[in-house]
């Protein structure tokens, strides 16, 4: 019978030696083992076993192999969670869960039932001592005390004297009015339960309360003496403190052109949540689709024709190809891709004009020219990187269809630094809300947006696909939309990186506006349209219209159905500048006529025109010097008036003097402000048309 004794030891991290004693002889066995990665756990990780480590600060307590710990620690999500306090961490994180488990009250340990003497008389025993409840009790205790069936047990009859009952009643009354100190800390970031409940009431989206009603609510709450009731100033102070110390750093303070202060959540944070959520990220479609049908936003022409369309695609060898960069194809073909798209089978393809190689002639060196007469559609497998043509394209000068020299490197390639790039289209929605206490009461405006990479079924069924930007009861719709437009334009020139949960890497994001949504009134205001009050009522084109009597006739209704020339933002801005010219020249009647005939009237431009007209009246001596004075001001000469109005007009045009809709970079135009179907189908035929043709 063989007997073996094993003696095991390790001489280095890669060799594992085993000594085996067989039949009195010592045999040595050596085998290679996988070296273990040395990990610095610090305070944000804990070891599970020799191979896996758990993150303590990120949601859902993710587990990673040793070799991926440093990669996860470098992510922005982990860095942000690591800097947060215990109360700021997600409730699903390991550290927060452990703290709450330790804080949770434990029940009494199991104990055997007491043994009673059958011959003992319970009435001869001393009554149990009265249990003094703490001054601050839980909601369960208060509900238990309020139950009506809590009669005394038979053996407690006569156990309490009248004086003791009075003392207990007085004690319970004090407990009912006591401060609820046991709730402090459970309503973070609000300081206490009362302030938290007041915020739910005051900031209700459908009926926000004014200061007068808020103070009335506080007076009522103090009268009934329930929870801690803050004063109005304390409530406002807590609200401002929370806004300014938001741990997520998503809230941005913005001052509008009218002087109103508002707060908004950055677009970058909303897009980062989309790419960090696999339930949303897995349903994104990055390329426009070319098929015989149109079912989704990606099937339309806008996604394919926008200057901000998806600029990059990943080739089969893992490299990145960008638009407007020459590519060599099989069969000695070359092209400059102008569009990445998918067919009906979701196969990614490219499309672009052909590129011709011109030999050296008359001293002009060899160069490449874009041939706009020939278009090439190709699949990614046809792209070659190692051919002679591909090598020549890198060294040749490239000229476009108009003979202009082209750059062979997309500007986003430099910004991406080797990472993938996504140009994210956004659907923006703005409208005003009314309270439930009557039409026109407590109105406020909100701006929301969605990721247009998602199909309709995901946009309709997933509430998480709708992102909140800002809301305000004091700021104008133009101020809210101006904040959105300025951030989009900033990100157009300065794209940002987010974590892509599916790619497990950071990606470069550049958002752009695909469409602006809202009701007819709001979109007319943003589009600088006077609406049905003008001769040209359509905000998108100059079709139909006419005088009031003509529009109310049958021919006027038919004329409104005809399409006219599309309005462009450049044309609208030129007409708005003309309105400023009329106001500067004190031509009030001509300005009113311009509004009606052109159908263009902007809120911000109208305010600027009003300032110019009022200043004109003062400088022309039409306004008295002071209130109650009879003598008018001394009129200035026309040249002196223009000398004073010119700098005033320049100051009015420094920042926002017309709708921010006309300043969106790469926006497709007013045709991308679709008509609200509610106003067309329901209100259009059922209300407005019936009233006009009555």
UniProtKB/TrEMBL annotation:
Listed Basic and acidic residues bias regions: 97-107
Domain of life: Eukaryota
Species of provenance: Tilletia caries
Compositionally biased residues, Acidic residues: 116-127
UniProt name for this protein: Uncharacterized protein
Location of the region described as Disordered in the Swiss-Prot/TrEMBL record: 72-132
């Amino acid at each position: 019978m063989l007997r073996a004794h094993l003696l095991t030891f390790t001489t280095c991290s890669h060799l594992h030696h085993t000594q085996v004693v067989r039949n009195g002889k010592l045999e040595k066995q050596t085998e290679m083992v996988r070296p273990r990665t040395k990990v610095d756990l610090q305070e944000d990780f804990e070891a599970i076993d020799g191979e896996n480590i758990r993150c303590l600060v990120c949601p859902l307590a993710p587990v990673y192999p040793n070799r991926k710990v440093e990669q996860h620690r470098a992510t922005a999500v982990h860095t942000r969670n690591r800097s947060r306090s215990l109360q700021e961490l997600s409730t699903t994180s390991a550290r927060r869960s452990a703290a709450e488990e330790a804080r949770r009250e434990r029940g009494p340990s199991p104990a055997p039932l007491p043994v009673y003497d059958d011959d003992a008389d319970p009435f001869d025993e001393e009554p149990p001592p009265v249990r003094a409840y703490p001054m601050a009790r839980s909601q369960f205790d208060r509900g238990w005390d309020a139950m009506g069936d809590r009669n005394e047990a038979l053996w407690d009859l006569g156990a309490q004297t009248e004086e003791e009952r009075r003392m207990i009643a007085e004690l319970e009354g004090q407990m009912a009015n006591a401060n609820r100190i046991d709730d402090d800390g459970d309503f973070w970031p609000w300081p206490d339960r009362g302030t938290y409940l007041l915020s739910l009431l005051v900031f209700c989206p459908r009926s926000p309360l004014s200061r007068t009603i808020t103070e009335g609510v506080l007076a009522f709450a103090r009268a009934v003496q329930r929870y801690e009731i803050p004063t109005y100033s304390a409530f406002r102070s807590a609200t401002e403190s929370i806004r300014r110390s938001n741990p997520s750093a998503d809230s941005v303070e913005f001052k509008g052109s009218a002087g109103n202060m508002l707060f908004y959540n950055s677009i970058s944070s909303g897009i980062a949540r989309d790419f960090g959520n696999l339930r949303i990220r897995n349903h994104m479609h990055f390329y426009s689709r070319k098929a015989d049908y149109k079912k989704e936003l990606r099937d339309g022409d806008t996604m394919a024709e926008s200057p901000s369309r998806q600029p990059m695609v990943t080739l089969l060898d893992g490299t990145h190809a960008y638009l407007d960069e020459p590519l060599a194809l099989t069969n000695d073909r070359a092209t400059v891709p102008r569009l990445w798209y998918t067919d009906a089978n979701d196969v990614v393809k490219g499309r672009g004009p052909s590129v011709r190689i011109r030999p050296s002639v008359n001293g002009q060196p060899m160069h490449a020219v874009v041939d706009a007469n020939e278009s090439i559609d190709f699949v990614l497998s046809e792209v070659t990187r190692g051919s002679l043509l591909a090598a020549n394209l890198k060294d040749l000068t490239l000229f476009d269809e108009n003979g202009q020299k082209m750059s062979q490197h997309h500007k986003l390639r430099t910004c991406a630094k080797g990472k993938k790039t996504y140009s994210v289209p956004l659907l923006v929605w703005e409208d005003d809300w009314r309270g439930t206490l009557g039409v026109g009461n407590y109105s406020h405006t909100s701006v929301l947006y969605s990721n247009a990479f998602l199909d309709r079924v995901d946009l309709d069924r997933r509430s998480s696909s709708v992102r909140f930007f800002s809301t305000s009861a004091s700021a104008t719709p133009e101020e809210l939309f101006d904040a959105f437009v300025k951030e989009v334009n900033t990100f157009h020139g300065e794209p940002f990186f987010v974590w892509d949960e599916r790619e497990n890497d950071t990606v470069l994001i550049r958002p752009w506006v695909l469409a602006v949504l809202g009701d007819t009134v709001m979109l007319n205001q943003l589009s600088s349209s006077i609406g049905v009050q003008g001769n040209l009522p359509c905000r998108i084109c100059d079709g139909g219209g006419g005088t009031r009597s003509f529009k109310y006739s049958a021919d006027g209704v038919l004329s409104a159905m005809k399409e006219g020339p599309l309005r462009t933002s450049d044309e609208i801005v030129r007409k708005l500048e003309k309105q400023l010219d009329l106001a500067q020249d004190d031509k009030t009647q001509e300005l009113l006529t311009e509004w009606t005939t052109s159908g263009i009237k902007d809120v911000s431009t109208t305010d600027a025109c009003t300032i110019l007209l009022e200043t004109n009246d003062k400088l022309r001596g039409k306004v008295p010097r002071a209130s109650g004075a009879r003598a008018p001001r001394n009129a200035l000469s026309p040249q002196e008036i223009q000398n004073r109005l010119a700098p005033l007009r320049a100051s009015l045009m420094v920042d926002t003097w017309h709708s921010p809709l006309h300043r969106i970079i790469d926006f497709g135009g007013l045709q991308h402000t679709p008509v609200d179907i509610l106003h067309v189908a329901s209100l259009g035929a059922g209300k407005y048309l019936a009233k006009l043709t009555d």
